[in-house]
Amino acid sequence: MASGRRACVTVLLCSLCCMTFAVILRTIDNDVWVNEFDSTELTCFIESTSTNSPRIEWKKVKNGVPSYVYFQNKISGDLENRALLIEPATLLIPNVSRSDSAMYRCEVAAIDDLKDFDEIRIRLAVRVKPVVPQCSVPSSVTAGHFTELRCKESQGYPLPHYQWFRDNEELPKDPKTSIRFYNSSYVMNAKTGSLKFRAVRKEDAGEYHCQARNDAGYENCAPQLMKVYDSEIEILVLKIAAGVMSFILLTAGLRLARKHICCSRRDQRENDYRVPPRDSGKDDVRADEGHFQHKPSFVV
């Protein structure tokens, strides 16, 4: 009975020591996700301490390299003028940037406590909305042939998933689950953005666009028309017609340019060789009379 009482007293004393003579930290979330440009808090609460003014520091660890975020009672580093310390030790970032993704450490040193140091680690991951994806859609294909459409985006985080649309209608992941797309032979990869047709059909023709989406948002590429022809001869004829039209336009442009150059040179020659206007005969006579006027002494 006495030994049981001593054990209870020991446990009580240890609890009191821990509560009174140890600095203990707590956080709400060790793994924080936030959208870019939103506000977030990295919570760091001091549960207990016997020190009146414990030393508080925040460090950012990126690629294994630590740097100060809060040191000597002020924000420093790349969060300077962008973050605030909320009493007692929570870090507030009002406008989160994608470069803020990192591991953060809240460190508190309390010299008056027996356990005079504690820290918590918080991983901050910033979601980034995708940019407009780059889509590759062939303008013309032959029925019965293999065809691939591609979609790629490089800025979004986490990595986006891709969805294809035809004539603004979402393509089901499996065409066999839809009456409208049942006879289509495509295979869509949501991770890579690839849309492959094993044997494209006339019914597969239309305007295609791709959407890149993650938890931060989504973006679409501009629709692109894909035509499907029955034979390669039709495609060849269209290509020849397009080439002929391009040649005609190029020839017409060259002729207009040459004509413009010739007109410019003609105008220049006319300006260079134009005879300057002469004075009237009346003025000439007066000038001559001024130089060769006869005096009365020479009159016979």
TrEMBL record:
Signal peptide positions (record): 1-22
Intracellular or extracellular location(s): Cell junction, Tight junction; Cell membrane
UniProt keyword list: Cell junction, Cell membrane, Disulfide bond, Immunoglobulin domain, Membrane, Signal, Tight junction, Transmembrane, Transmembrane helix
One cellular component term from this protein's GO annotations in UniProt: bicellular tight junction
Highest taxon in the source lineage: Eukaryota
Topology of this chain in the membrane: Single-pass type I membrane protein
PROSITE patterns: IG_LIKE
Transmembrane segments: 236-257
Annotated segments matching region Disordered: 268-300
Membership in a protein family: Belongs to the immunoglobulin superfamily.
Protein name: Ig-like domain-containing protein
